[in-house]
Amino acid sequence: MRVLDPTNEMNAAGISLAPRLASLQGQNDWHHHQRQGKAPRGYFTHLELLLRKELGAAQVVWREKSNYSAPADAHIVEEIPNWHAVFAGVGD
Known about the structure:
alpha/beta; three-stranded parallel β-sheet
C-alpha cells in the first residue's frame, strides 16, 4: 500500500498573514468561492446569514472560479486587495 502526503513541502517566501479584524460589524465585501454552476445554498448560505444577522457584516459578495480545482482566475485575484475577508470551500 502506498500512502501519499498531500502537504506541500515548500515554504512560502515573503508572505505574511493579514492582521485579524477587530470586528465584523459594518464590514463590506465578504467573498466566497463556490463551485461553478452551483446555486448558493447549504453551508455558505448559512454562513452568509450568520455574517449578516449575528456579526453585522454589511455586504456579502459571491465569486466563483472558472475551474474549482485550479487557482483563482486573474480577475478574481485582482479584487483581493479590496476584500476584508474570504471564505473559500468546495462542496455540494
